Amino acid sequence: MSGRRVVVTGIGGELGSRVGALLEEQTWVGEIVGIDANPPRRRLRRTVVHVVEPQQHELIAERIVQANPHVIIHLGVWEPDARLSSAEAQSFTEHFATAVFDAATRVSALESVVLRSGIEVYGKHGHSPHSPNEHQPLEPQSLFGNMLLGLEHKVSELAISRGTAATLLRLAPVVGPHVPSPLGRMLRLPAVPFNPLGSARFSVIEDGDAAQAFVSAAQHQPHGAINVVADGSLSVMQAASLGNRISIPTIGPGWWAAKSLAKLAGAPVPEHVV
What is the structure's pLDDT at 54? Predict the structure, then answer.
């Protein structure tokens, strides 16, 4: 298998740029087309990048159909309160997905779609100390979880109608030096609030490992959901200690006050983080 054409949406983000850079090193990859509202954060030498706003439905669809990819890697997902507010993140994600998946129905060469999803689709089970497995019930309890589950449904419908492979990569919270992360910002506060009655432990995935998972999925085209989670888990108290921060157990009205103060400090805490 060589000369495979790949479209990467969301290539302007840190994860998308890493995926693009890795794809350029693969001998099985031919033409690469990237689409995003922002240019890549890394220099990509053989990727054709189109900077398009998520609301430009027809232009996005045109670029994808013209590329006629064998594989679409859809990373055009905005996490609430990472770079955009919750409302903006939801709107951008929905607009982008509509354009991409409408175009995908008209791509004659399409064999596989790889979706950036997340363990938030499991709800509170997604932060189990034992790590979620792919057979747990999907019970999202946050805006981000519901956004991701909606994308999974769109990809699954496309796979059924087209007979293509659909890989749903359910990522743990992605961390890295340049990754915009509500969780990371919260853990960098001088005093880190946490709800002792909520999710006591969490898992993460490093951005480089997450990028490699997308490239592997694009090459091997597995069908179904795959959790992408680093080994082990830790508590908010442990994470705060590692960062030389103070952890403050907060419940009831105090928890809402702590979230408001964190937002004022530039570290909003969306519901999927806690």
Answer: 95
Q: What is the pLDDT of residues 91-149, one digit of tens each?
A: 999 999 999 999 999 999 999 999 999 999 998 755 554 556 888 889 998 999 999 99
Tell me how far apart the alpha carbons of residues 92 and 251 are, in angstroms, rounded to a whole number.
33
Contact 74, 6 (CB under 8 A): no
Q: Which residue from 47, 23, 22 is spatially nearest to 36, judged by alpha carbons?
A: 47
Q: What would the mean pLDDT of 3-19 be, rounded to a whole number?
A: 97
Here the CATH number for the domain that contains residue 177 is 3.40.50.720
**pTM attached to this predicted model:** 0.89
Token code pair at residue 30: 């031919």
**CA dist., res. 31 & res. 146, Å (int):** 33
Residue 10: give the domain boundaries: 4-181+203-234
Q: Which of 169, 153, 147 is nearest to 224 (CA)?
A: 169
- Of the candidates 74, 130, 81, 132, which has an alpha carbon nearest to the alpha carbon of residue 270? 81
Domain count, the chain: 1
Identity of the amino acid at 216:
S
The answer to whether position 72 is within a domain reads: yes
In a domain, 28, yes or no: yes
